[in-house]
């Protein structure tokens, strides 16, 4: 009962930290302009490891395709592409779990840089990581994840107990907004397109009954 008086202030501080920290359009630097320490680790992660043996727990996802370079220069480099489903809580939770799994102490593919869609330049989550109330921080991060304000990768970096890998947005801002505007324009025509396709489907169904016969109709 004695601790109740500071629950609201702590929750407010957590929300302010989350809202005022820009995790989308950060300092516009190129991925290859990261500090040299990060670059060297990103280019050559755990040399000599056999990445062909890497597996992901079924509860988090599955590896659909692998490519091992025969080039001696590239054989020790590892790039993991995780398929994304934006604003999907199950997919974002799985991404967070995959990154957490890869960051375990005994992992053979511990990432040093996590490249993000929908952002440009370094994504700094250090302010959120410094929030002292772990319970409040977890609750707010989860709420922001469910609201699609945060991605699974950002929540992973915020709540990771060990020092997380660098988060870096790989979008070109102008191109990103150009594609976004095209997407919104297409979505605005969705009802018209559906009406057109329904009309075409009706005509095709009529032709099918006149042209096809027997098993071909089934």
Summed up, what is this model?
This protein has 8 helices and 3 strands, in the order αααββαααβαα. The protein has helices at 7-20, 36-43, 89-102, 126-129, 134-146, 152-159, 173-188, 190-211; strands at residues 113-116, 120-123, 166-170.
Structure description:
Helix content is 45%, strand content 6%. It is mainly alpha-helical. Helix 1 (7-20) packs across helix 5, helix 3 (89-102) packs across helix 6 (152-159) and helix 5 runs antiparallel to helix 6 (152-159). The longest helix has 22 residues, at 190-211. 19% of the residues are buried. The model is unreliable at 1-7 and 16-48 (pLDDT under 50).
Structural class: mainly alpha
Largest sheet: 3 strands, mixed
How large is the share of residues in beta strands? Answer: 5-15%
Low-pLDDT residue intervals, each spanning 5 or more residues: 1-7, 16-48
Q: Which descriptor suits the 3D outline?
A: extended
Helix content: 40-55%
Strand order in the sheet with the most strands: 1-3-2
Computed over alpha carbons, the radius of gyration is 23 Å
How many strands in all?
3
* Cα distance spanning the termini: 70 Å
Number of helices: 8
The SSE string, one letter per element, is HHHEEHHHEHH
Task: List its traits.
mainly alpha; 3 strands; disordered N terminus
Any chance you could write out the topology, listing elements then pairs?
Layout: H1 7-20, H2 36-43, H3 89-102, E1 113-116, E2 120-123, H4 126-129, H5 134-146, H6 152-159, E3 166-170, H7 173-188, H8 190-211
